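Feature request disguised as a bug report, sorry. It would help if multi-protein outputs had a clear separator. Right now it looks like this:
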Amino acid sequence: MARRSVTQLGENESINEVYIASSKQLRPNRQGNLYLQVQLSDKTGIVNAMMWNANDSVYKRFEDGDYVRIQGTSQYYNGSMQVIVSHIEKIEAKDVDESDFMQIGPQRRDELLQELSEQLRSIRNIHLRNLAECFLIDEALIARFRTSPAAVKNHHAYEGGLLEHVVSLTKVAKAIVPFYPQVDEDLLVIGVLLHDIGKVDELSSDKGLAYSDEGQLIGHLVSGVSIVDQLVRASEKLSGEPFPNELALRIKHMVVSHHGKLEYGSPKVPMTAEALALHYIDSLDAHMHGFDRLLADDVNSDSRWTSYSPLFGRKLFKGGEA
C-alpha cells in the first residue's frame, strides 16, 4: 500500500503511517490533564498532532528527529489540518525508506554544490575568488552548509534548504546584474553566498528542525559576520596579502542588512547597491518559495483562496483550473 503523505491527508481519515517527529511537548490542559503535542513531517510537509490523556511514559517513547508510527484521525482545526493521535511508537530508520522524508537527497545536494562551486570559481575579483575558495575548501563548513535548512518554517525549511536557496539566488543575482550596471556582480554573488551562512550554526536538523542554543542566544546575522571574519583571515593566509578592508566591510554590511528593515531584525538597513539588490532578491526567493508551499499545503481544496498566511499577512488567490 502506498504511504499516506502529509499533503494527502484529508478530513476525518483514519491514519496508520510513519512520519518524523519533532518539537514534542507534554503540556497540561485547563483541567490539569496532560496531552502530547508534536509535529509530524515527511518530504511533502508538516502537520501538527495532539494526543490527549498522555503521560511521561508516552513522552519518553521517542525523541525529536525519530521516525514514529502513528495511529489516529485527521481533522481540520482553524483552517489547518491536524492529527488526533491514539497511539504512537518509535520506528527504526532501517525499517523506512528515507527518500520519503528527504526533500533534497544526497545526490541532488552534490549536484547543487557542484553548480555553486562552478559559479564561485568564475568570480573575476581575485580577493573575492580567494574568499570563495577558502569557503569551498573548508570541509567542516561545507558539511554543515550542504545539510543546513534555510529556516525552521516558511521557506526552504528542510535539510539542504540553505544550499538550494543560495544556488537559486546566485542565478537570480547574475540575471539582474546586466540591468543594473552600478551593481558589482562578484560582490553580489559573494553576498548571496554568505548572507545566511550563520544559519549553519543557528539552525539544527539533527532532531527535527530547531534553533540551536547559539541561534537562540546570538542569531545568524552575528554568527554570519564571525564566519566572514574567519574566511577573510583564511583568504589572507592563502594569498599571503591583506584582504581589502572596505571590501570586507561591504560583505559584512550585506550580511547584517539583508533583512532590509530594523523591525525585521537587521541592525542596519541596506546602504550599498549590492546590499539593496541582495535584500530584494532574497525576499523574492523566500516569498515565492513560501507561495508554492502555501498552495501545496493548503487544505481548502475546494476553495479558490488559501487559508490566512502569517508569512504574507493575507489569503492568496488560487483561482480555478486553467
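(second protein starts here, but nothing in the output says so)
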Amino acid sequence: MDSMGKYIRGYVRIRLESPAPERFFSLCVHNRIPLRNLTQEGSCYEMELSARDFLRLGRFRRKTNARIHILRKNGLPFFLHRAQKRKAFFLGILLGLVLLAICSFRIWDIQIAGNRYYTTPVLLETLSEWEISCGMAKRNVDCQKLMQKIRQTFPGIVWVSARLEGTCLIIDIKENDEIPQETPVKEDTRSCWDLTAPWDGTVVSIITRAGMPLVKPGDLCKKGDILVSGAVAILDNDSQIQRYEYVRSDADIVIETRFPYYDEFSRTITVKSYPGEQKTYPFFTLFGTDISWYHTPKNTSEIYRTERQLTLTPSFYLPVTVGEIITIPYEKKSYCYTPEEALELSQKHLQNFLKNLVSENAVILSRYIQIKLTANRCRSQGYITIQIPGSDKSAVTPKEFPDLSAETTE
C-alpha cells in the first residue's frame, strides 16, 4: 500500500555531492524529509525522496555547498507529464473502452445445446424470423417469452432454458426421447397380415409364433408366395372348419436364395493434381464486415476458410472474428486404371456389397462372379448364394368356409 501511495505522489532518485554530507542529512531529519534507499558510491550518496520534498532541498543545498543530480523520475505525475505528447494513444484507449462498454449491451453469439432432432441451423433460422440474432440489444430479449415460443413452435422439445451471460444468449433444450406408443388397433382383417416370401428360394427354417405356416423346411418358394397365413382355421369336434380367426402373422423365416450381383464402372476417371503452392490470406471481421487482402485466384483452386470469434471472457463475445483463407491451386487430369487397379477396385466394391449382406444377418454360402475388362469399362456380374432371414407383409385375404347350417341330411 505504501508503494502504491509512493507511485501516486511521485518520487525521484538523486545523487548528492557535498563536502559536508552529515550536515545535509541532519537538516533533512530536522525538517522531517524522509530519505529512502540510501547508498554510498565513493564520495557520493544516492537516495530516493518524494517529488514534493525534493522541492524543499534548495536551501539545504546552499548551506552545505552541495551539488544534486536527478537520476530518475518515477510515479504518476511524471507519467502524465510525459503522456501529454501521446494524446492520440490514450484517446484510442479511451475510445476502445467506450466501444467495449457499448458492445456489452448487445448479443454477439447464440449458443444452443441439447438439440439432436432439431438442428442448430433450423433453430437459428427460426430465431432470426423472430428478430433474434447477433447484434441485437440485450434489453429487447425477453427470455420468458422466448422459452414459451420455442415450446409452442417445436412440439418435440419438452424443456427449454434461455439466459443471457455477458454478450452471449445461451439456450439449453431437452427433446422428447420417448418412443411414441402405438395406438391399439382392433384386430380385424384390415389390421392383420400374411407373411410372404421376399425372394425366390428354398425355405431353410421356419419358427411360427402367430399364424398358420403353409411351408416347411426344404420347400421351394417364389417371391410373393404366402409362407405364413394370417387366417387361422378354428375346427369343431368333427375336425370341420367352424370359422377363421385373423391374426398378425409372426415368424422367424430363413430362406436360401441367390442374389444377383452387378457392378460396372469406368476405368477412366478425373483426378486432381496440385502443382502450385497454397496461399494464406489473414482476415478479420468487424461487425459482420470482412476486411482482408484475399482476392479470387485466377486458376481453379480449393478454398478453405477458418475463423474464430474473439472473447474477453468465456461469456463475453466480441463482434470481431479473426481467421485465414487458404487457397490451393489444382489441375484436373484424366487417369486410366491399370488392369490390376481395376481388379482391386472391383474386389473392394464386392467386399462392400458382402458386408452389407452380413450386416443384415445373411450367411454367405458361395459366390460366382465374373469380371470382364474392356478398354474403358470394368464389369462384374454373377450371383451370390446366401441364407438370409426375412419376410414381407401383405394384407390377409378373408377366406370362405362351408356353411354347415345349410347342410341337409338324408
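Even a blank line would do. Unrelated, but nice: The chain has five domains: 2-82, 109-175, 193-254, 262-267+335-392, 270-333.
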